[in-house]
């Protein structure tokens, strides 16, 4: 039997986004696959009083189990309420890169408050058709929907694109009107993963395209995927303790900060968390080879993640302090 997200204490992204657009900040969308990542997200966002989007990919759902995800999200709300001494930060549960109508329906019936339908690899009219179908279903359940126009370079789940296909400003008004989406993911130079650019390249977000898009759909919530900055200290730490991450390069945090001040109201970060976790685990395993209690390496990994997420909310996205707007 299905469950509605409100029964789990979750919210959809509608109010979050209108506040973020007006307030000049972006809501963090942090991916999670396991308990420690979820704990770190909730601890960080509760401490800095930020709204948050718990983001689950198709792969994460398969990894952690769909039933567990439902109860993890419900547990996250109760945990955040404890941390907030009775007051819970706004928490949405979002499907990242949904690739079919059926997957979106399944997530909605298991308590997701928001879904992404990623038709960005389809021809334009097919993207519209699929996205519209998801929107019509989701809105009957008051679930918000993110669509995507343009293709990011890098890997999106199983789909790999060699080069960016920037979002065409000319298409955004037509796409948002005809589909009815609540937010739009765009491609302006960010990309997925830890290897976004080659050494010597100058990674720049195309803020000029973002501004053109904003002119066509003023105040409409924009989403930026692939927004990890790949901090070089974390890459170095991974490599110091046995990792082999060669030429891992991301987008500078000041550029993400700049975009977050505009209509960009959701910023997706996954890879930086993976790096923080892996660096911390590698350090423990390399320096304390006698340890075999998972809490002794997953605990420090969780702490490192929490610090990373707090930093992102405060210094990069500007979402800290906006939980009760
Ligand atoms: O954009 C993709 C996210 O980082 C999720 O990655 O599909 O490996 O869980 P995943
Ligand atoms: P990163 O790989 O840059 O963290 O992007 C994550 C993302 O876009 C999830 O949808
Ligand atoms: Zn993404």
Can you offer a commentary on this structure?
The protein is α/β, with parallel strands linked by helices and 325 residues long. It has one domain: TIM Barrel (Alpha-Beta Barrel). Helix 2 packs parallel to helix 4 and helix 7 packs across helix 8. The two termini are 35 Å apart. The chain binds glyceraldehyde-3-phosphate, 1,3-dihydroxyacetonephosphate (13P) and zinc ion (ZN).
Give a quick precis of the structure:
The chain is of the alpha/beta class and 325 residues long. The chain has helices spanning 14-23, 35-48, 58-64, 66-83, 101-109, 124-140, 169-179, 207-216, 232-240, 253-260, 271-287, 294-317, and strands at 27-31, 52-57, 91-98, 114-117, 144-149, 154-156, 159-161, 183-186, 222-224, 264-269.
Global structural class: alpha/beta
Tell me about the largest β-sheet: 8 strands, parallel, barrel
Strand content: 5-15%
Q: What best-fitting shape do the alpha-carbon axes yield?
A: globular
Which percent range fits the helix content?
A: 40-55%
First-residue to last-residue Cα separation: 35 Å
Bound heterogens, unique: glyceraldehyde-3-phosphate, 1,3-dihydroxyacetonephosphate, zinc ion
Number of domains: 1
Number of helices: 12
Please state the second-level CATH architecture.
Alpha-Beta Barrel
Question: Total strand count, please?
Answer: 10
pLDDT < 50 runs, ≥5 residues = none
The CATH topology is what?
TIM Barrel
Give helix and strand order, one letter per element, not per position: HEHEHHEHEHEEEHEHEHHEHH
**Order of strands, widest sheet:** 1-2-3-4-5-8-9-10
């Amino acid at each position: 039997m299905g469950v509605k997200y409100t029964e789990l204490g979750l919210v959809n992204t509608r109010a979050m986004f209108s506040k973020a657009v007006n307030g000049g900040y972006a809501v963090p969308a942090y991916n999670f696959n396991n308990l420690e990542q979820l704990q770190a997200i909730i601890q960080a966002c509760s401490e800095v009083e930020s709204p948050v989007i718990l983001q689950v990919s198709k792969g994460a759902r398969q990894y952690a189990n769909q039933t567990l995800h439902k109860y993890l999200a419900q547990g996250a709300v109760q945990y955040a309420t404890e941390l907030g001494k009775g007051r819970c930060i706004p928490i949405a549960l979002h499907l990242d890169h949904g690739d079919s109508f059926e997957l979106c329906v399944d997530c909605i019936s298991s308590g997701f408050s928001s879904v992404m339908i990623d038709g960005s690899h389809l021809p334009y009219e097919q993207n519209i058709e699929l996205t519209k179908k998801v929107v019509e279903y989701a809105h009957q359940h008051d679930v918000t929907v993110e669509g995507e126009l343009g293709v990011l370079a890098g890997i999106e789940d199983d789909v790999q694109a060699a080069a960016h296909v920037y979002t065409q400003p000319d298409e955004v008004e037509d796409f948002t009107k005809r589909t009815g989406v609540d937010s739009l993911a765009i491609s302006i130079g960010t990309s997925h993963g830890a290897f976004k650019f080659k050494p010597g390249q100058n990674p720049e977000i195309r803020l000029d395209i973002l501004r053109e898009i904003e002119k066509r759909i003023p105040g409409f919530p924009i989403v930026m995927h692939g927004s990890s900055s790949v901090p070089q200290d974390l890459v170095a730490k991974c490599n110091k303790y046995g990792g082999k991450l060669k030429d891992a390069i991301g987008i500078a945090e000041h550029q993400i900060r700049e975009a977050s001040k505009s209509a960009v109201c959701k910023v997706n970060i996954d890879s930086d968390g993976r790096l923080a976790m892996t660096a911390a685990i590698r350090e423990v395993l390399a320096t304390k080879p006698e340890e075999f209690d998972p809490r002794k390496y997953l605990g420090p990994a969780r702490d490192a993640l929490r610090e990373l997420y707090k930093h992102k909310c405060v210094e990069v996205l500007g979402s800290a302090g906006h939980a009760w707007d």
